[in-house]
Batch of 4 targets.
Target 1
Amino acid sequence: ADIKEVVDSFEIEADHTIKGFELKGEQHWEQVRIDQTRQENTFRQYWDTPANKSIVRQQIKPESKSSDTRFNVAKWFLKEKVYASSGYRFFVLKNQEWESVLGYNEFGTPAALSHGSLNNRAENSYDSHTWVQNVTSTPFRWLSLGAKLKEEYLNRRGESTYNIKTGNPSVSTTIDRFDVSTTKFNAQRFGEAINARITAIPRTALYSELELEQSRGPLNENRVSVGGTAPTSVSENVDRETLTYIQKNVETVGIHVMPISFVDLTGHYRHYWKNNDYDDLQESPPSSATVEKSAFFDGQTIRVNEFLGRLALKLSRFFQPAFRYIHRETGYETATESEASVRTGIDSNNYIVDVTSQLLTPLFATTSFSHLDATTWTPAKEALSANTPIFESGVNTWSFSLSYSPRKTLSFINTLSYSRASNFNDFSDRGLPLGADYRMVNVESGFKFGLLKDQVSLEPKYQLYRYNANNNVDAGDYTAHVALLECKMGWG
């Protein structure tokens, strides 16, 4: 595959204080252009027939433009015992994509392809209005209370035309069938949150937070085949409207303790619950084999229980180790039309060790090692004919970071991480080679320096991403080189 990507971004940020009111505004624009070509060669043996020697070439050109506008105002009240803030965000995203999938023979001459397509086009748009309000108060020195409200309205539109071409494009460009699809989604989303922090016990802080979110909106989906040389009866025909209700709750309770000056203990329990409910308002009836019945999902419930514990020791500036343990249980319960609910799940344990060293006053080094093991299970583990055992996986990651700031206006940052997964399990008798098995390297190097009395800062970076997969599992090797230059300017 050959991928070329160009990203242009520009950001303006301003803040000012008037009579105690902190005002802040941000504007961000971004444009992304990608040209991707993927080629698949099907050559079996050199003595094979020409019919079995083919090349499939796919070319995709997506483009997108986005605009992100934010305003925020905040102020302290009642002798700095109450802090209130309010923010508004307007976000717009528009993108389009062009695609062609063509076939060639072994010599590169255009040839017929059973699933070819020519000049496919798609356009999408998304916009949202979001308001957020936040109030924090400290009625007593040992008690802090907070409350948040969020309202959001979003609109999403999509249109696409898929042009199916089964003949030889060098002979005729006539399209066999046009599949035209349109989607619309309008939603309202509301969120509430309350939190409390208690520090009445010496060297101890207890905290708790409850987050709620509700969203509702209709989803319209339509697809129909028009024109072309092939009859429309061989294509799908979808016309449906689904009303979605989504509820989400997150409860967290935690503790932070420093029994002695160089020992830091943190722990929390978090429960996450999300329920997606889908109601069919209109659906295309399955009156014939060529008309697709719609919206066969009735709902899905997701539950997550998370336990986190952290121990940090500040023994000296040269040696500050920390250990974290995260246990997470995730369960999915999916209900489909006229079928019993299906339960699947993932249980994981993550062990992380960090060591931070301040070798010199401006020089910091951080070394980290993490081990993640996970267990995935599905109802197929109990199937008689095609039993799929519980899959256990593990990933080890080593990382190193070095930062050096010889001057206030100059700093160097370098990071390196290496991940190794060795989980290939060949269930050849069932035809299911399961297991992530890869090596991955990420490198980032850059520096930041200030100009014009630190009113202007430049931050060039270089990033390298390398992924090597086990060929028995997949063929997804890639190497990516990224060059970035970030410029920030301030005034006032």
Target 2
Amino acid sequence: MPQKYDFSDVPDSVVPEFHRLASETLDGTIQIALAADVRATTLAGIFGGASVALLAAIATILAGNSAPYHILLLPSFVASFCLFVAATLCAWSSRPIDFFMGGYEPRLIQESAKDMNWMLRFATEDIQTRIDANKAALSTGAKFLQCGMAIAMLGVVAAVIIVIYPWVSLVRSF
């Protein structure tokens, strides 16, 4: 449930500046959201493309039936799967959601338009609620993006470990 704000104690002389600063902050959350969406969709494309490329490599190895390369099947599959999950999380991060923008329909503020300071104070309270909602949405999207990036990195590290482990074991046995 959104927090209710009461800015009635803000002096009338600063209400216009108070409202202007709140509007700028709301616009800033929209710019951050656009940048986050671009970053998330770009990473989804990169991770998805890498996943498909690894699957193509697996298919090539299997089709060629070349035994020396079968050691690469498991690490390729692990990395491909992790990259696919990462791509899915990044894509989910940039899914369409409700996001608040600035401005008001005139019909919604007509009643408060009789007193400029009262209208701006009321609008600023509403803008703060919108800023809070936008920040919460950005935070949720960032968590999905961070998880996606972590899974992608862990998948690549796991694949490298799977490739290196047999050689490390072989060296230790001598």
Target 3
Amino acid sequence: MISLNIIMEGDGAFEDWKDRKVHHIGNDAPPMRIAALPHGMKSGRTSVMIGIELPDKSVVMAEISLRLLLAAAAGFKAKYGDELDG
């Protein structure tokens, strides 16, 4: 399973990728997909699959544990507040 770096201050977070090919996903791109996979982990816990269609019609699919996704969301919420309020 892929790991997840949770970066609370995003400025410069992708600086080490500055010389790589970038696939720009514009506002007219198909929606990204995020799906829960019950029992997706070897432990039987839920995993989450994130899918992004690139301009050349190839796709990127990344699977992480729901636990990691929730940990990231909890950290962002603690630092920046609850964006679902109001």
Target 4
Amino acid sequence: MKHYPFILVLLIASLTVKATDPVAGKIYFSNQPMTSSTGSRSSFNSGENIYARLELNSGTIKEAFRIKEGKGYPYIQYRVTITNSNDYTMGGSGRNYLLLKDDQKDQSSLNFDVMPEPSKATTLISATDDFTAGYGYFPLYNTIINEKLKPGKYTVKVELYSEPLNAWGSYEDREKWPTITEEFEFNFRDEDIARVISNSKEAGDFIYENAFRHTTMPDIFSHGATITDPMATNAKVLAIVKRDLPKRTILKMVIEKTGTLWSLAHDDFGLPKYRYFYPGVYVAYKIDGKCYIGKITLRQDYSGGGTFGPLHVGFTSGNDDKGIDCAKVR
């Protein structure tokens, strides 16, 4: 047996992370999307899909993880760690944010994806807690790919936790984080590498496409403005949008009600740069057989001498546009 210097033993002890506040419950795993813990398993190979289900002993997800309402999207944090047979950590996913939907917060169970089949992916995970970046990240898929995992048997630890605020509005110390973890055996096979890479991208694309998808038409489409300014009537704006975005089939358009119609933008020297149409223009459109809701900004570039060029599309919400079933566009 190898003996370490006493000072090193003390150093290792001082770096030991304090235990977190355990959440009373259990995480179960299956190769099929779960509705109960029946049929759960503790061993998988890399050619299978993997799903998880958290079941609390009592209370709700919101209560167990001490989630406060009223600021931003509700979430819990989701981390995956892979260790080998020598208990050596091969890689981990770091900090990720799992969105809790409205019908999940007040439940005593939570279904979530681990290595889902792309078309069955339902868990929205983000790199940021305001869910503005990193859509489509699946911790286990990405950890395998990032670490270029070699074939062999591993232990995968799945951890759900939160960093709640105390009465002063500051984050609690780590030992007070509500946390629950569970492990499963994972046999990673060389012949599954291509499948893992492909599924990771396809599942990510599927979630990205459906993140925050509209279930009904946004309220703005019921409260649009009628513009009488001859330079930007509703009909002229619609014609401009169709002209400048020819790949989109515009199904419905509405102009936001505002008190101001035009605003002037200047460059760093205070000179006119362009004049923009202040109200937002919202459109429901179809492209490549799918429907989306987006926002458009119109502007006129400065031509000099106090004049401006023709009105045209300046910006679109682009990649932030959310999908909607085409049948619901009305």
